[in-house]
Design a protein that fits this description.
single chain, 396 residues, alpha+beta, 7-stranded antiparallel beta sheet, 17 strands
């Protein structure tokens, strides 16, 4: 007995030792599980499923798209059934965007990754690839024909070229969500491009504006292309260079309800009114406003307001918007905070986990005073005024 090892002893006693089977999974299954675990960690941190939206963090947008795909995969439903303790795959937290309705550009925009895409065989890895849409856009830009009536446009190009040399015209980066209108000038692939005509526009499935353009180039050629194709080319041309807009120095107001031809549309000031049932908010609803600035769509920004403590955990009403042109959004937000700082809402609410939150950018200011402030920012006189909370008006 003393010379018997453990296996010999168990054999002598007639005890069978079952062979342990090592569970093996295919690489795809391992990636699906790993991807879902990322989503679960997000849920545990934030108390909700990831959401779509341009104001969301890139990882949240990635997780939202991934979750949409997992909900549609039968093999994922079977594989993850035992791991889905929060009911994420059941769709209890409905996504705000249907990926089936998005084209390639819209899907990439949801991820916020430009010309990157999700590899079809690996839902957890982003790879730098050039989408077919981007390739098509480059081909459209390259497909130029001789401009038979170029003499009609030549004086415009001469004015811009001379203005650039004399620094009467300047170039500005073409930013995300920037507008394109008839009469706009751009620098694209080393040429000056002039938008001569904008045809009938329409809305794409992902709510983007599109339409046919007639674009004239300084080398006496022209092209008939889609507005979205020109936007993509201006983000980055075929040689990897970003395009730019050409404008006159000090042209136009800072911002206005009507965009002037030489303005750059960089965003929107929005004024919101809360639908919160909080007693203080309900009592002063007509006076309490949130003032913000966004470079994207206001609708996308407030889509999940009822779940966000920033918006007082309630739906909001958009009561005013003002387009921005050629203005730094951060500086503008600082102007509003300086101007209305004395009237900032002093309110602490509890988030869904019982944690105290003190929302910012909410002010006890009447809407007509905000309108006046916007006008005074536009004409430059705002530096001579301050807001008096006692009289609820701007005073010199």
């Amino acid at each position: 007995m003393a010379d018997m090892n453990d296996d010999d002893l168990l054999d002598a006693l007639g005890v069978e030792v079952p062979t342990l089977k090592t569970a093996t999974r295919a690489p795809r299954e391992e990636r699906i599980i790993a991807g879902f675990e990322d989503i679960q960690r997000f849920y545990q941190t934030h108390g909700r499923a990831p959401l779509h939206g341009e104001d969301r963090d890139i990882f949240e947008r990635l997780y939202a798209v991934r979750l949409d795909q997992l909900r549609k995969l039968p093999e994922a439903q079977t594989l993850l059934a035992g791991l889905d303790s929060h009911g994420l795959l059941s769709g209890s937290a409905v996504a705000t965007v249907n990926v089936d309705d998005l084209d390639e550009d819209a899907l990439l925009a949801e991820l916020g990754i430009g010309s990157e895409s999700v590899d079809q065989d690996d839902i957890t890895v982003l790879r730098h690839v050039r989408s077919s849409a981007a390739i098509k856009a480059a081909e459209e830009i390259a497909a130029r024909n001789p401009c038979k009536d170029f003499e009609k446009f030549k004086p415009l190009f001469d004015e811009v070229e001379a203005g650039l040399k004399q620094k009467l015209w300047v170039t500005k980066p073409f930013g995300k969500n920037a507008s394109i209108e008839a009469g706009d000038f751009f620098v694209l692939s080393g040429l000056i491009a002039y938008v001569a005509e904008v045809g009938d526009t329409y809305r794409t499935p992902n709510a983007e504006t599109n339409g046919r353009l007639r674009v004239i180039y300084s080398n006496e050629t022209e092209s008939d292309l889609l507005l979205r194709s020109l936007q993509r080319a201006l983000y980055k041309d075929s040689e990897g260079r970003a395009g730019s807009r050409v404008i006159k120095v000090d042209s136009g107001p800072l911002f206005s309800d009507i965009a002037e031809p030489d303005d750059i549309e960089t965003g929107t000031i929005y004024v919101l009114r809360s639908q919160s049932s909080h007693p203080f908010v309900a009592e002063h609803r007509e006076l309490i406003h949130k003032i913000g600035v966004t470079g994207g769509r206001v609708e996308a920004r407030i889509a999940a307001a009822a779940k966000d403590a920033t918006y007082l955990l309630a739906d909001v009403e958009v009561v005013a918007t003002y387009k921005l042109h050629n203005l730094n959004r951060t500086r503008l937000e600082n102007i509003f905070h300086r101007l209305f700082g004395a009237a900032q809402l002093d309110l602490t609410i509890e988030d869904r986990f019982g944690h105290p939150v003190k929302p910012r950018e909410w002010f006890l200011v009447p809407l007509h005073v905000i309108d006046e402030a916007v006008e005074r920012i536009r004409d430059g006189s705002i530096t001579d005024f301050a807001y008096d909370p006692q009289t609820a008006r701007l005073v010199s």
